[in-house]
């Protein structure tokens, strides 16, 4: 089952089906089901948790503050507890991507030495973690959702939730472009992810348009995500007590490469952002409402 609401069903039933399926995926990933290695499983679990958090944000206009906060906070805590493991692996991937992009500009041994140091750190982080608490929390969330704690009345809630996400994305985009710090760009990326996942959720309202727009938001999220990883790598390279300090090579030589690549990624993100957020929030809301209230698309 894809992360998609069945718009032929009542909204509460469609939401429970999607949430239940995705929670079962996360529980399976964290339980060690299947053949995936632990690093990949953690990565997939965190992606699914982000989708679930976007689903809860989509429903926020139709929930009491107490119900919304309980599930949003519970999912955030599980995701946060897995974060150190995923971020350690993400830095390894950032070094690999930078090496490929800037091949020949710095000795390969510099990249390889840093990669080995980061792999050792990632292994140490994974060895210290235990997923039992996360699994217990996820099962409790699943029980509450199956009991109807995320039930909302109708599609108008979906419209309101999407408009809220789009508006927040428009605002964080303006803030990040005016002052492109790592923190502000990361906040924009979180709002872009909400828009990506939520447009995918209602994609059956008009697949030809909404799926394409979700894909564009996904691409923008990837640009901002790559920039975020390099921002983290820059901080690590500058840390006199971090893993880079133990590498027997001039890792400072990587700093200009990181800066240049970040400039490229941010320029691409600005261009993509101008398209993803081309409408005013009011125009966006009118369009989404029209899609969700139109007759079903013929199969």
Report on this model:
It is a single chain. The protein has one domain (11-293): CHAD domain (Alpha solenoid). The model has no long low-confidence stretch (mean pLDDT 92). The chain is built from 10 helices and no strands. It is globular. With 299 residues, the protein is an all-alpha fold. The protein has helices spanning 11-31, 38-59, 65-101, 108-128, 132-146, 155-178, 182-201, 207-238, 255-276, 281-293. It starts with 10 loop residues before the first helix and ends in a 6-residue tail after the last helix.
Write the layout of secondary structure elements.
Layout: H1 11-31, H2 38-59, H3 65-101, H4 108-128, H5 132-146, H6 155-178, H7 182-201, H8 207-238, H9 255-276, H10 281-293
Helix pairs in contact: 1-2, 1-5, 2-3, 2-7, 3-4, 3-5, 3-8, 6-7, 6-10, 7-8, 8-9
């Amino acid at each position: 089952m894809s992360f998609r609401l069945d718009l032929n069903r009542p909204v509460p039933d469609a939401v429970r089906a999607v949430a239940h399926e995705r929670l079962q995926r996360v529980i399976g990933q964290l339980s060690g089901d299947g053949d995936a290695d632990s690093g990949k499983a953690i990565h997939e679990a965190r992606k699914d948790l982000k989708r679930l958090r976007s689903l809860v944000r989509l429903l926020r206009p139709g929930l009491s503050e107490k119900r919304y906060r309980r599930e949003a906070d519970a999912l955030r805590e599980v995701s946060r507890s897995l974060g150190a493991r995923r971020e350690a692996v993400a830095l390894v991937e950032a070094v690999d991507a930078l090496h490929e992009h800037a091949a020949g500009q710095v000795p390969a041994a510099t990249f390889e030495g840093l990669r080995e140091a980061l792999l050792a750190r990632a292994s140490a982080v994974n060895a210290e973690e235990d997923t039992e608490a996360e699994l217990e929390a996820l099962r409790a969330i699943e029980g509450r959702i199956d009991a109807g704690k995320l039930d909302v009345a109708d599609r108008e809630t979906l419209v309101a939730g999407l408009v809220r996400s789009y508006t927040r994305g428009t605002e964080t985009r303006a803030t990040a472009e005016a002052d492109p710090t790592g923190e502000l760009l990361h906040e924009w990326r979180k709002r872009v992810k909400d828009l990506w996942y939520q447009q995918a959720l209602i994609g059956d309202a008009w697949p030809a348009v909404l799926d394409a727009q979700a894909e564009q938001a996904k691409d923008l999220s990837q640009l901002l995500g790559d920039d975020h990883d390099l921002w983290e790598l820059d901080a690590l390279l500058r840390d006199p007590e971090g893993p880079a300090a133990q590498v027997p090579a001039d890792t400072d030589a990587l700093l200009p490469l990181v800066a240049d690549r970040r400039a490229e990624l941010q320029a691409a993100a600005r261009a993509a952002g101008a398209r993803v957020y081309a409408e005013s929030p009011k125009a966006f809301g009118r369009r989404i409402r029209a899609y969700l209230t139109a007759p079903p698309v013929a199969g």
